[in-house]
Amino acid sequence: MLFSLIMSLGRTKDLLQPGYDTDYNILRWAQGYGFNLEEALLHLTRHLKFRLFFDLDNVDKIKDNKILKQYFPLGLVGKTGKNNHLLVVECAGRIDLFGILRSVQMSAFVYQRFKFQEMMLHEINRMEALNKVQCSSIYILDLDGLKLDTDLLSIVTGPYRLLWVLVYTNYPEWIDRLVIVNAPTYVSVLWKAITPLLPERTRNKVRFATTLEDTIRELQKCCDMKYVPKHWGGDLIDSNGDPMCRDRISIPTDSIPKELYWKPNDISPPYNQLDAIVISAGSWKLLTIKLGPCDRKPFLALNRYSERAYSMAVYHSADENAIDQSIDEMREWAPIFDYPSLPTVDYLKVPALGPGVYKFRFGNEQAWFRSVTLYYRIRFVDESDNPLPMEIIS
């Protein structure tokens, strides 16, 4: 079966970059879709396009977002000592989710999270090359400090869930087991709300540990405890004698000061200064823009804002007469994904494909009844943000 999937990659070999084309990377896609090779290839192809659009092969060169680095850190502890696994810790209960949503633009969040994922993937690939065995991670999600408030349920089932889906859809099978520890009693309410939104394969990886003894018992199944920080029942302490191993795990301790909350500026103006499009439930709309010839490297500069989730994809044709062309006949530059609603106006700047016709597809497919208003500003600029000649067709 895997051989068939690898052979099928001939259709997308131009998308597959050196370094990603390992047997284990391909195997993860087959596993993630129950060895339904047609479905696996569909999602793998979408991911490869996503990689190119966001230039994930070079995401390590992007500077860390200072707010996310300090207030939303993720920690790779290292190997677990069993089954070629890695250990990852996220102290989610200490994260100021409310403040994060009001401080960070969506694209900045996506880049920071995918920077971590690519670092994880690099380490996974390194261990696979070294040990000739498939590698994945044991993920400790520590909810100690999680506070119940009126916004928590909507955040967890809304933007936080969609951002997790965006990650997991692009990195299938990177988690072998998700161990949730120090969960407050009311977490069952959150879990009941989230469970229907998760694929069964993902749900089956989750384990709850309500006591330290439960945590130790669960981690002993998949870890040599000398590689687990002492705070979570293992034997590991860092060079400073810290049982939480802060030399490799950043632990958020404070709420985000309000002075760090996002504020509109020239690059990301208030949403009411953007163009708007209303998309009815279950439908989508196209915006067509023609980029003229230019002697400078073009970039897409995109602002977007919505009060509810929406989907987006971008298509391109170098033929300037492709205005009436179907998107099925054009190159899918940015594959379709759902994006969450955040209080900030997003700003994304990526290298464009050159002159020609661009079609932006915005959708509201997940809604049954309610329309959504998407606010946007689409520009093509050079590296210094000087505007390039473009024509809005529709």
UniProtKB/TrEMBL annotation:
InterPro entries: CRAL-TRIO_dom, CRAL-TRIO_dom_sf, CRAL-TRIO_domain, Ctg-1-like_C. Residues 64-240 form the CRAL-TRIO domain. It comes from the Eukaryota. SUPFAM superfamilies: CRAL/TRIO domain. PANTHER family: CRAL-TRIO DOMAIN-CONTAINING PROTEIN, PROTEIN CBG07705-RELATED. This is CRAL-TRIO domain-containing protein. It comes from Ascaris suum. The lineage of its organism: Eukaryota, Metazoa, Ecdysozoa, Nematoda, Chromadorea.
